[in-house]
Amino acid sequence: MGYAALRRAAPFTLHIRCENCMRDSVKVVDMPIGDDVPRDAEELIESVYLEKIPFRCQPCSGVIGRLVGICGGNSYDY
């Protein structure tokens, strides 16, 4: 009997601009293990995971941020 290795989704790097002070910040988000997790930026945008990620600007403590870019994730090379 063989063992199956759990495959983890690569982390995403979110580039966020604070709506209060207009400063850019970066947040790295690790995705959980599972079949229904987003694997690329397009799937992340369409999923509900972005709604659950909190944001707080370090310089001004603003809580409203605009997503301006996404890097990372996995391609579909199984």
Short description:
This protein is mainly beta.
| Class of secondary structure makeup | mainly beta
Give the helix level as a range of percent: under 10%
| Shape field | elongated
Annotation, overall tally of beta strands:
3
Over the alpha carbons, how many angstroms does the gyration radius reach?
Answer: 15 Å
Could you describe the 3D structure shown?
By secondary structure, this protein is mainly β. The protein has one domain. Helix content is 8%, strand content 27%. Strand 1 and strand 2 form a beta hairpin.
Descriptive terms for the model:
single chain; 78 residues; mainly beta; three-stranded antiparallel beta sheet; 8% helix; elongated
Question: In terms of topology, how is this protein built?
Answer:
Elements: E1 12-18, E2 24-29, H1 41-46, E3 65-72
Antiparallel strand pairs: 1-2, 1-3
